[in-house]
C-alpha cells in the first residue's frame, strides 16, 4: 500500500507573522555655541538608522531637560523616541557643556538665571536647540515637536506660547507659570501647537491654582490642548530617581505617542 504523502497547506499571507526588525539607532553628542555670551553647549542627538526607515524626512522632537541638566532620563527618552516612533530626537543643552547639578541646591543655582530671564536667556537657548534639531539632515522641518520634564515642561510650554513653528508641545510634570511678556492671554494670538500637559495629581510642587490658570490660558489662546492628571502621581513621576510612578510614566508616554501618531504619522508606532 503506497504511503500517504504529507502535503503542507500554504499559509495565507494574513497568517504569516513577520519577524519584527529591531531598529538600528544612531546617537551622538552635538556641540554648538551661544554666540551672544560665547557659551559652548553640548546636546544629544538620537535617530533611527537609514536602513530601518524610509529615505524621506522624519519628524523631529526637541527634548528639554529638567533642572539638573541633560541626564540619563533625557538621553533614554531620546533613544525611545528614535526606537519606538522612528523620529529624530535632540536633547537641547540649556546650561552649557559639562554643567550639571549634583544636588538640589546646585540644580537650583543652575536654574535660577533661566527662571529669572525667560524672555531673553532661556528663550535664546531654546531657539538655539530648536535650530540644531532643524539642521539635522533627515529632519522634517514641518513636523517638529517639543517635550520636556519638570523645568523642561515649562520650556515646552514656552515654545508653544510664542508660535515658532512647533506643531506639538508636551509637558511632563512641568510648571505652568505664564510668560512675563504675555500678561494677558486674551490679547495674544492663538497657540498653533497641539498641547499635551501630563500632570501628577499628587504633585505638591504645583499649586492647584496654577493648574486652573494654565487651562484658562489655553482656552483664552484657543489652543488644541489636553490636561491629563494622573492619580497618585507625584512630581517627577517619569524619573526613576525622584517620585517615579510606573503607571503614570507609561500612560503619559503612550498619550504623547498617540498625539504624535495623530498629527505626524510615523514609521514605527504600531498601536
TrEMBL record:
A GO molecular-function descriptor: hydrolase activity
SUPFAM superfamilies, per the entry: alpha/beta-Hydrolases
Pfam families xref list: DLH (PF01738)
Domain (Dienelactone hydrolase) ranges: 54-262
Entry protein name: Dienelactone hydrolase domain-containing protein
Species annotation: Meloidogyne enterolobii (Root-knot nematode worm)
Amino acid at each position: 500500500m503506497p504511503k500517504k504523502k504529507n502535503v503542507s497547506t500554504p499559509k495565507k499571507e494574513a497568517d504569516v507573522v513577520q519577524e519584527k526588525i529591531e531598529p538600528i539607532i544612531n546617537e551622538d553628542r552635538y556641540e554648538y555655541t551661544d554666540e551672544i555670551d560665547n557659551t559652548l553647549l553640548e546636546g544629544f542627538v538620537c535617530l533611527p538608522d537609514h536602513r530601518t526607515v524610509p529615505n524621506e524626512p522624519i519628524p523631529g522632537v526637541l527634548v528639554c531637560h529638567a533642572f539638573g541638566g541633560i541626564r540619563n532620563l533625557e538621553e533614554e527618552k531620546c533613544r525611545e523616541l528614535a526606537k519606538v516612533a522612528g523620529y529624530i530626537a535632540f536633547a537641547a543643552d540649556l546650561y552649557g557643556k559639562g554643567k550639571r547639578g549634583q544636588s538640589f541646591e546646585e540644580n537650583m543655582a543652575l536654574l535660577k538665571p533661566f527662571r529669572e530671564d525667560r524672555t531673553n536667556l532661556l528663550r535664546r537657548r531654546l531657539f538655539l536647540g530648536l535650530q540644531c534639531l532643524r539642521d539635522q539632515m533627515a529632519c522634517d522641518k514641518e513636523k517638529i515637536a517639543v517635550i520636556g520634564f519638570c523645568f523642561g515642561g515649562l520650556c515646552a510650554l514656552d515654545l508653544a506660547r510664542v508660535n515658532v513653528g512647533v506643531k506639538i508641545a508636551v509637558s511632563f510634570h512641568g510648571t505652568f507659570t505664564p510668560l512675563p511678556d504675555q500678561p494677558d492671554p486674551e490679547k495674544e494670538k492663538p497657540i498653533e501647537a497641539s498641547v499635551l500637559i501630563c500632570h501628577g495629581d499628587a504633585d505638591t510642587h504645583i499649586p492647584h491654582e496654577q493648574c486652573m490658570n494654565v487651562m484658562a490660558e489655553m482656552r483664552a489662546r484657543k489652543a488644541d490642548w489636553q490636561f491629563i492628571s494622573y492619580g497618585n502621581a507625584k512630581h517627577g513621576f517619569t524619573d526613576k530617581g525622584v517620585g517615579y510612578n510606573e503607571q503614570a510614566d507609561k500612560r503619559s508616554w503612550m498619550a504623547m505617542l498617540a498625539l504624535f501618531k495623530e498629527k505626524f504619522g510615523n514609521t514605527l508606532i504600531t498601536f
